[in-house]
């Protein structure tokens, strides 16, 4: 039998788990919000499933639960720099977002560089946070080496997620968020836990042979989506959100951690753009013209990305978030034992 929690109850419970584990409120609050948002939107691979990995990374000493992110440089023009101080990226993002939005509105575009952070969450919460300021957004980050390049046989690239958002007046933004691998690594783990085979074309084993076995996939490599196209985009993200911002690339992250069981430690790049500033002096309102495009897409019977997630959000906001008894028991265990709950 499932139990239903309100979003406030779920956020409070998750935050108390992190505080119990020794985190400060600056770290625990943003983490609780993004994990609860995953559950709210029906994204189980980025919901409370992620708590265990957060606690494991904290216990291993590969992230600081008491870090206080700080801005670097008094004024870097279009570049906003935030150092996560060895903590999670979420707190650093929340710190830098107001400055990023102000700069983008003033200059037309701005970029926030987050350095020295652990990252475990989806990118759509950050994209949506930027679009709430009336700005378009692109967000990207590396991961650790778990994806073979197109034609390769060994892990080299990360799952390297990329997200985009466009603000819409009076309704949810246009948002997509996807890994440049065929699937997020969390999906492989969920298949393993459920005893389910993977779809063909998701992964190769340690010998570079195609596999549908989640265990073999976790010991081998995932594949990029779209073959050479996904491989090229994944490489672009290594360059822009790793090399260019002076942070770790996915192979370097794996060297640093020595395992894929912990949250990866690297940097993140957030780009915000003002449609009004870019369209200034040209014909038409950019937001109205975008709506014509969205209407044409839906007019053909196609679905805009994230619509299922937004529908799940509406249900959760109206009815609460359903958790199984096993999930609730795990939350209770984490709260009672803190880091001792992790082997």
Automatic annotation (TrEMBL):
Among its keywords, does the record have Repeat? no
- Please tell me whether the keyword Oxidoreductase is annotated for this protein: yes
The record's InterPro entries line, in alphabetical order, gives: Mal/L-sulf/L-lact_DH-like_ah, Mal/L-sulf/L-lact_DH-like_NADP, Mal/L-sulfo/L-lacto_DH-like_sf, Malate/L-lactate_DH-like
Organism the protein comes from = Paracoccus aerius
Give the UniProt family note: Belongs to the LDH2/MDH2 oxidoreductase family.
The name on file for this protein is Ldh family oxidoreductase
Task: Name the UniProt key words of this record, in alphabetical order.
Answer: Oxidoreductase
